[in-house]
Structures are given as structure tokens and as C-alpha cells.
Specification:
CATH topology of one domain in chain A: Dna Topoisomerase Vi A Subunit, Chain: A, domain 2
Largest interface: A-B, 57 and 57 residues
Helix content of chain A: 40-55%
Shape of chain A: globular
CATH class of one domain in chain A: Alpha Beta
Number of helices of chain A: 8
Mean pLDDT of chain A: 94
Distance between the termini of chain A: 66 Å
Radius of gyration of chain A: 21 Å
Order of helices and strands of chain A: HHHEEHEHEHEHEH
Strand order of the largest sheet of chain A: 4-3-5-6
Low-confidence stretches of chain A: none
Structural class of chain A: alpha/beta
Largest sheet of chain A: 4 strands, parallel
Oligomer: homodimer
CATH architecture of one domain in chain A: 3-Layer(aba) Sandwich
Chain lengths: 196, 196
């Protein structure tokens, strides 16, 4: 069929979770029923790809020098939450009442892949810790081995400056049934039990 | 968070089957891992929305005056298959060995919605039937009431010119289990049984 249509179907496949059939469905939907939507998507994509970079303070995604979270005077300046990715910032914002600062690593320590403290912006985090305002570092990196190593590394950074560091709780998810929870999580939940 | 990111997430929701969470996942994936893919998608979208129109012969989607199927000299010119949408053309091309012409209705007869023969390009189909080359009209409209009425209408158009019209077979799908097939399909399959 048409060259441009085939190209559009192929280009849509760069989206995660979109295979050949859904790409075709998307392309035909836009062409037949929502051309204004397709044009708007085209403009938003090119704007976003060209203009969105990283916040100079916390490293999350933003088109400004400083993101709106870092620029929000209403947020606590004595708490910083360390996460691996911008998606984690969105998840914390959407799910919790956390109203402090962030540091986004954009990865985790992985010396074999050449990812050291500098790649994770830890020099910048260090400068923030040195500045003296921060009193607690909340470690919300992943539960993979790399995530744990990264949490440990940053925990030590905080400890060296007499700053408290905490790790978010890992355990049985709410509504989770014990028999379906994996062994590592369950054993972790037992070790981390609290007074009731 | 960032204005441009929120706008991109919102714009992605014009895609069918994309809710707020997958839109967010798509936006972050493009920004963090595949900016060239995002830029290419933006270009393909704007090209496609601006330049893809309908084939002047069969009415399927194409950026040319005549689509590549209509322009293909290797295809039979004595067969025309009538379908409701461009997606149906792709489905027939991908699944069958059909090598004839098409007529794409871009809908079905629906007088209450103001969709009559003219909206379906039936004047153009009539002209093609009049031209004398076509010897069989394959009716592949949907099995809805409107699809059946449309098939009947076009069948009469063909009959009036002494042209054979056929309807694609409807029945139990391959691999389908009788107990899970809906009653209408099963009753249709019994009525349409053939010598074995």
C-alpha cells in the first residue's frame, strides 16, 4: 500500500508495547478519525524531543533550567528522596504525600558498564548535602543488587556528613497474598517486621 | 512536573488503546531511550496527516492520486472487492491471495446518519462497473445489519448490469469450537453448508 502509511506504521513501533498490528490500528485510526490529534501529537513530540532536558538540580526531565518541583517554594528543603528514574518521581508524586526534594540518578552504580558516581550526578548530590539544609536522605532506589549497592553508597555519603538516611520499606504489597509473594520479598518482610 | 512532558503524555492519548499510564510510559521511554525514534515519529505523523488522502479510483488511503494497488498492472482488472475501510484492504492483502481491484466504501449505508450511496462513492463504483471490464463483484462488507444492506444494494447494482456478485463466506472460524461460537454465526454456518 502507500509508502507514507507504511512509514508511519513502522515509526509508531518505536513506542514501547506497540507491535505491527497495534501500530497499523493506530495509524489508520489517526488518518481516518483524528487527524487533528495526529498533528498535535507530531508537534508535541518534536517540541518535547528538542526542548526537554534535565533539571540542573535534581536531574529529572524538564524543559526549564530548574524543574517545577525544585522551584516549588512550598516543598520541604530538608528532605531529599533518591530515585533511579524520572518515572519514579512521577510514581512517588502520584502515590504518596511526599513534599520534599528529589535526586534522580538516571541509572544505578554499575562499574562494569562504566557507570560510577559521576554518571549518577552524585557530585551534585554531595554538594547539596554539604550545603547543610538536608537532614534526611530517603533511599528509594530499586531492589536489584545494583539498586542496593547504590543505596548503600549514598547512605555512606550521608552518614559521613552526619545526615540521617532511610530506606523505603520493602515487603508484602497491600492486598498481596502470602502464597503468591516471592521468597525474597517474604523473607525480607519477616526480617523487617515491626511492633504491632 | 514539566509542562511539555504533561502535554506529550496527553497528546499520546489520542492513540487508540493508550490510557494515562501507557502514555506516560511511552513519553518517558522516548525521552530517556529513543529520542531519534520520537523525532522520526513526529516527522512521519506530520507528513502522513498532511499528505495522505484517498485514492481517486478505489478510495483507500494513499498520498498519491492513485494508490499502488490500483496502479499495479499485474493485478486482475475483472475482479473488484468491496470493503468498508482501508484496514479491510490491508487485512485482505495480508491474509489472502486476492490479486484484483478494490472499492473502499469508507462506511456503510446508514440513511439515518445521512450516509447514502454518494457518501460511499457508489457513483464511482457504478462508473467502473459500466466500463465493462469487471466480471465479478466480491462483497466483503461487515456482517452488521448496515453491512448486509450495503452488500445487498451493491449486489443489485451489479445484477442490473449482468455482473456476477459474490459474498465472502461467513461461518465458524478456523480453530473455533462450536460451543463457543455465537448462535447467529452457527445458524449461518448451517444454512450455508456445502457438499463435502
Amino acid at each position: 500500500m502507500a509508502g507514507l502509511l507504511d512509514e508511519l506504521i513502522d515509526a509508531l513501533r518505536c513506542l514501547p508495547g506497540v507491535g505491527p498490528r497495534s501500530a497499523q490500528r493506530m495509524a489508520l485510526h489517526l488518518l481516518e478519525r483524528d487527524r487533528p490529534g495526529g498533528e498535535r501529537l507530531s508537534r508535541c513530540l518534536s517540541d518535547a524531543m528538542a526542548r526537554i532536558g534535565h533539571c540542573s538540580t535534581c536531574r529529572t526531565l524538564t524543559e526549564h533550567e530548574t524543574c517545577t518541583l525544585c522551584g516549588d517554594a512550598g516543598r520541604r528543603r530538608d528532605l531529599v528522596c533518591v530515585v533511579e528514574a524520572p518515572a519514579d518521581v512521577l510514581a512517588v508524586e502520584q502515590a504518596t504525600g511526599y513534599r520534599g526534594q528529589y535526586h534522580v540518578l538516571l541509572g544505578h552504580l554499575s562499574p562494569l558498564d562504566g557507570i560510577g558516581p559521576e554518571e549518577l550526578g552524585l557530585d551534585r548530590l554531595e554538594a547539596r548535602l554539604e550545603a547543610g539544609e538536608i537532614r534526611e536522605v530517603i533511599l528509594a532506589t530499586g531492589t536489584t543488587a545494583e539498586g542496593e549497592v547504590t543505596a548503600h553508597y549514598i547512605g555512606e555519603m550521608a552518614r559521613a556528613r552526619g545526615i540521617r538516611s532511610t530506606r523505603i520499606a520493602h515487603g508484602v504489597p497491600l492486598g498481596g497474598e502470602l502464597e503468591y509473594v516471592d521468597r525474597g520479598t517474604l523473607s525480607h518482610a519477616f526480617e523487617g517486621r515491626r511492633d504491632y
